[in-house]
C-alpha cells in the first residue's frame, strides 16, 4: 500500500532580499526618543540571501542597543543618535559615508544585525554624536546609549565616587597620595583595596584611563577646598563682627607661609575659629601682609570692615603702631582692638628671665645639651637606658623646642628625675674612644657641669618657676579663652611667683640638692670656708675701703633665684598691661554685671557704632529679670555665680524667640566679646599641620595643592559634612568627554 506525500502550505513571506530603500533621506525631526516597538508588535519576516527560513527584527535588540530607531513604513532600522546629531547640525551629513545604512538608506540585513550594530556603536562618528549631543543636553543620554555603555557609565560613576571619598579621607588625615609612579602610592592602593570584590570596578581602575592622574587629583582637592571655603562663608555670613589671627613661618623648602584664621560667633552664640589657608607672600613687610589679608577677605566675600578684633605676635611688621598690619586694620575700623598674643607674651617673659639670669640660662643650655648628646646616637641612648633597673621605668630625655610653649618644664622634669642615670652615662661616654673628639669634648663639659650642685639647684629652680607659667600657657590656648580670663590667669600667676620669694622655699630647694649630693657624686660648696666677696671698685660710690662681706656660696644661688622671680614678676606687669585687653575685659564684665543686676557704665566701653547705646542700656536693665531662672540652671554647679560671658549667652539661647529678640543689642555685645582672640594658638596649630603635610619627601608640593590640602586637613568637621554628589556633578559636567564617560549624575 502506497501513500502520497502531503505538501504542507508555506507561510506567506515577502520575496527574498532586503527591503527596498526609502526614496527620501531618513529623518527624526520632531522626535525626542527613538521608536522602539514592544515585544507584542508583529515585525514583517523575510528571507536573507539563499536562506530557507525567514528573519525579522528581534525585540531584544532594542533593550541592548537603545539608540536603534525602527521605521515601520519601510521595515528599516536607523541610528537615532547620529540622525539627531545631523538634525541639530552638530555633525554634517556629508561626514557619514553614503553606504552607511544607519544614517542614509536604513539597515535591514537581519542576518548580520548583531555584527553591524556593534561595529556602528564603536565607530568614531557615533561616539562623536553622543558627545556633542550630550553637550547640547537636548536629548536624554539614556536614549542615545546602549545598555552596555550605560553599565560602563554606572561602573565609572561608582569608581569616581570611591575616588572622591578616598581623596576626602586621605586629605582629612594628611596622608600622602602619590608614589613614584602613577600606579603606586596610597591613593591607588587604597582604591584597589576598596574594590577587591568588585571585578568590574577593578577592571576600570586597572585600565589605562582611570581618571586618577595628578591633574585630576589636584582638581578634586581644589573642589573640596573651595567647598570648605564656601561653607565657612555661609556659616559666618550673618555675623556682625569677626576676629582675626595671623602668623607666619617658613616651611622645609624655605618658603614663607602666611597663615590666617577667622573667628566668628554663630547664631547659637558659640564661638568658632576656622582656618582660611596658607599664602605665600612675596616678603614679610606690613604692607604686603596687609594686602594678603585684604585679598583673602575679598576673595571669600567677607567684609573686612567687620573685623572687630585681631591678635598677632609682637613682630614690628604685625604690631607696629604706624605701618604694621594692626595699624592698617585700625584705619579700616577705628573701633577694632589689637591684642598682643598672650602666649607669645608669656613666652617672652621666660626668655627675658633666661637672658637676664645666668642660672636660668645655664640650666636650659644644660638640658638642651644633654638631650642632644643622648638622643643623637642610638648607642648612647641604649647605654643611658641600661642604667635603669628592671623595676624602674626608663625616662626618655626630651629636648627643648623653641616653638612649643609648654615643653620646657617637662624637659626639665625628665632630666631631674633621671639625674643619677645621666651622671653615669656622661661619665662612661667622656672616656669612650669610639665617640668623636668634638662630641667627647662636649660630653666632658656637660659632665663637669652636671657634677656641680649649682646645676641641680638650677633644675629645681626652673621647675618651680616654669611649672605655673606653663599651666597658664595651656589655659590661654583654649578656644574659649577670654580677655578677662587671661588677665585673671596672669594675676594668679604673679601671686604664685611672688610666693616663691621666700627663704624657706630656697632652703627647701637646697635641702633637696644636698640629698641628691649624698646619693651621687655632686660637688657642694664648702660651707666651712666662707666665700669672700665685695663690690667692684667701679661700682662703689666712695673711695673709702669697703668692709669685706663673707658668706656661703649658696648665697649666690639664693640671689640668682630671687633675681629670676623679680624679672618674671616685673615682666608680667609690663607685658600684660595692654589697654586693648583691659577694654575687652571691661566689656565682658559689663555683660556679667548686667546679668547679676548691677549697673553698667557704657561710656567706658568705647562701643562701635553698630551698637545702639540707648537700646543697649535699656536691655541691660531688663536682662536680669528675664534670665534669672536660666542663669540659675547654668551656674548652679558654681554656687549660682555668673563667671563668663558664655554663661549669659547660654541663658539667652534658652529664651523663647520673641523674648530673645528683645535683647538684640546685648547679643551684639556678646558677639563682640566672644569674637576677640587673645592668642594666636590657632595659627600656631596650623604650622604643625604644615610640617605634617609638607615633609622632606613632599617638599616639591605646589603652593596651590598645599593650601587646598591644609584646608581639608585642618577643617575636618566641615569636610566630613560636605555632600560629594554636587562636587561630582560639577566635575563630570566640565567637559563632554567626562559626560560621555560617567553619564549624568
What structural category arises from helix and sheet content?
A: alpha+beta
Task: Please give the order of strands in the largest beta sheet.
Answer: 7-6-5-8-9
User: Could you say how many structural domains there are in total?
Assistant: 4
* Main beta-sheet strand count, sense and barrel state: 5 strands, mixed
Strands, count? 11
Mean pLDDT, all residues: 87
Computed over alpha carbons, the radius of gyration is 40 Å
- Beta-strand fraction estimate: 5-15%
Sequence stretches where pLDDT stays below 50 over 5 or more residues: 1-17, 138-144
Tally the helices.
Answer: 31
Helix content: 40-55%
Question: Could you give the distance between the termini?
Answer: 77 Å
Shape: elongated
Describe what this molecule looks like in 3D.
With 745 residues, this protein is α+β, with helices and mostly antiparallel strands. The chain has four domains: 46-145, no CATH class; 220-341 and 680-714, ATPase, nucleotide binding domain (Nucleotidyltransferase, domain 5); 346-525 and 552-575, no CATH class; 579-674, no CATH class. It has 31 helices and eleven strands. The strands form four sheets. It has a five-stranded mixed sheet, sandwiched between helices. Strand 5 and strand 6 (256-265) form a beta hairpin. Helix 12 packs across helix 13 and helix 13 (358-375) crosses helix 18. The protein is elongated and about 140 Å long.
What are its keywords?
745 residues, alpha+beta, Nucleotidyltransferase, domain 5, 4 domains, 53% helix, elongated
Amino acid at each position: 500500500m502506497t501513500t502520497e506525500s502531503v505538501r504542507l502550505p508555506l507561510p506567506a513571506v515577502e520575496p527574498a532580499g532586503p527591503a527596498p530603500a526609502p526614496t527620501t533621506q531618513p529623518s527624526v525631526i520632531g522626535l525626542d526618543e527613538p521608536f522602539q516597538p514592544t515585544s507584542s508588535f508583529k515585525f514583517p519576516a523575510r528571507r536573507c540571501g539563499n536562506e530557507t527560513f525567514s528573519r525579522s527584527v528581534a525585540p531584544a535588540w532594542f533593550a541592548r542597543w537603545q539608540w536603534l530607531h525602527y521605521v515601520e513604513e519601510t521595515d528599516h532600522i536607523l541610528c537615532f543618535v547620529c540622525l539627531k546629531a545631523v538634525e541639530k547640525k552638530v555633525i554634517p551629513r556629508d561626514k557619514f559615508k553614503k553606504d552607511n545604512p544607519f544614517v542614509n538608506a536604513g539597515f535591514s540585513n537581519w542576518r548580520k544585525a548583531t555584527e553591524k550594530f556593534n561595529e556602528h556603536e564603536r565607530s568614531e562618528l557615533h561616539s562623536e554624536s553622543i558627545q556633542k549631543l550630550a553637550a547640547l543636553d537636548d536629548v536624554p543620554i539614556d536614549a542615545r546609549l546602549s545598555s552596555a555603555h550605560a553599565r560602563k557609565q554606572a561602573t565609572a560613576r561608582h569608581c569616581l565616587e570611591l575616588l572622591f571619598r578616598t581623596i576626602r579621607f586621605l586629605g582629612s588625615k594628611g596622608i600622602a597620595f602619590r608614589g613614584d609612579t602613577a600606579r603606586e602610592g596610597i591613593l591607588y592602593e587604597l582604591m584597589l583595596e576598596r574594590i577587591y570584590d568588585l571585578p568590574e570596578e577593578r577592571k576600570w581602575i586597572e585600565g589605562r584611563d582611570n581618571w586618577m592622574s595628578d591633574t585630576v587629583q589636584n582638581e578634586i582637592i581644589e573642589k573640596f577646598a573651595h567647598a570648605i571655603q564656601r561653607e565657612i562663608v555661609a556659616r559666618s555670613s550673618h555675623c556682625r563682627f569677626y576676629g582675626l589671627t595671623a602668623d607666619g613661618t617658613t616651611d622645609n623648602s624655605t618658603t614663607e607661609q602666611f597663615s590666617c584664621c577667622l573667628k566668628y560667633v554663630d547664631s547659637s552664640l558659640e564661638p568658632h575659629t576656622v582656618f582660611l589657608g596658607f599664602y605665600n607672600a612675596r616678603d614679610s613687610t606690613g604692607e604686603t601682609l596687609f594686602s594678603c589679608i585684604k585679598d583673602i577677605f575679598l576673595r571669600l566675600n567677607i567684609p573686612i570692615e567687620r573685623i572687630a578684633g585681631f591678635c598677632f605676635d609682637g613682630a614690628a611688621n604685625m604690631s607696629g603702631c604706624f605701618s604694621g598690619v594692626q595699624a592698617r586694620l585700625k584705619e579700616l575700623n577705628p573701633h577694632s582692638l589689637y591684642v598682643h598674643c598672650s602666649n607669645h607674651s608669656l613666652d617672652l617673659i621666660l626668655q627675658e628671665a633666661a637672658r637676664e639670669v645666668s642660672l636660668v640660662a645655664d640650666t636650659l643650655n644644660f638640658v638642651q645639651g644633654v638631650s642632644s648628646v643622648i638622643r643623637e646616637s642610638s648607642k648612647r641612648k641604649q647605654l643611658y637606658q641600661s642604667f635603669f633597673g628592671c623595676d624602674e621605668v626608663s625616662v626618655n630625655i626630651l629636648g627643648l623646642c623653641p616653638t612649643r610653649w609648654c615643653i620646657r618644664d617637662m624637659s626639665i622634669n625628665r632630666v631631674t628625675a633621671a639625674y643619677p642615670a645621666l651622671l653615669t652615662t656622661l661619665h662612661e661616654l667622656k672616656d669612650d674612644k669610639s665617640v668623636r673628639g668634638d662630641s667627647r669634648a662636649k660630653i666632658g663639659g656637660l659632665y663637669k657641669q652636671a657634677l656641680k650642685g649649682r646645676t641641680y639647684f638650677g633644675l629645681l629652680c626652673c621647675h618651680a618657676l616654669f611649672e605655673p607659667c606653663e599651666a597658664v600657657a595651656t589655659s590661654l590656648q583654649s578656644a574659649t579663652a577670654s580677655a578677662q580670663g587671661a588677665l585673671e590667669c596672669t594675676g594668679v600667676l604673679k601671686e604664685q611667683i611672688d610666693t616663691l620669694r621666700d627663704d624657706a622655699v630656697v632652703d627647701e630647694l637646697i635641702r633637696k640638692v644636698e640629698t641628691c649630693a649624698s646619693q651621687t657624686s655632686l660637688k657642694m660648696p664648702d660651707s666651712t670656708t666662707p666665700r669672700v666677696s665685695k663690690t667692684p671698685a667701679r661700682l662703689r660710690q666712695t673711695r673709702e675701703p669697703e668692709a669685706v662681706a663673707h658668706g656661703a656660696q649658696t648665697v649666690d644661688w639664693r640671689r640668682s633665684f630671687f633675681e629670676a622671680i623679680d624679672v618674671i614678676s616685673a615682666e608680667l606687669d609690663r607685658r600684660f598691661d595692654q589697654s586693648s585687653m583691659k577694654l575687652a575685659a571691661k566689656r565682658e564684665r559689663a555683660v556679667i554685671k548686667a546679668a547679676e543686676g548691677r549697673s553698667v557704665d557704657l561710656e567706658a566701653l568705647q562701643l562701635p557704632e553698630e551698637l545702639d547705646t540707648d537700646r543697649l542700656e535699656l536691655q541691660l536693665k531688663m536682662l536680669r529679670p528675664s534670665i534669672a531662672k536660666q542663669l540659675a540652671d547654668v551656674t548652679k554647679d558654681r554656687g549660682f555665680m555668673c563667671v563668663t560671658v558664655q554663661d549669659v549667652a547660654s541663658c539667652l539661647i534658652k529664651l523663647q524667640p520673641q523674648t530673645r529678640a528683645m535683647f538684640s543689642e546685648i547679643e551684639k555685645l556678646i558677639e563682640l566679646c566672644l569674637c576677640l582672640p587673645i592668642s594666636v594658638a590657632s595659627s600656631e596649630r596650623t604650622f604643625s599641620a604644615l610640617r605634617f603635610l609638607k615633609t622632606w619627601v613632599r617638599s616639591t608640593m605646589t603652593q596651590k595643592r598645599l593650601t587646598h590640602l591644609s584646608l581639608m586637613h585642618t577643617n575636618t568637621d566641615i569636610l566630613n559634612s560636605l555632600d560629594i554628589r554636587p562636587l561630582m556633578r560639577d566635575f563630570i559636567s566640565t567637559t563632554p568627554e567626562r559626560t560621555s564617560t560617567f553619564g549624568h549624575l
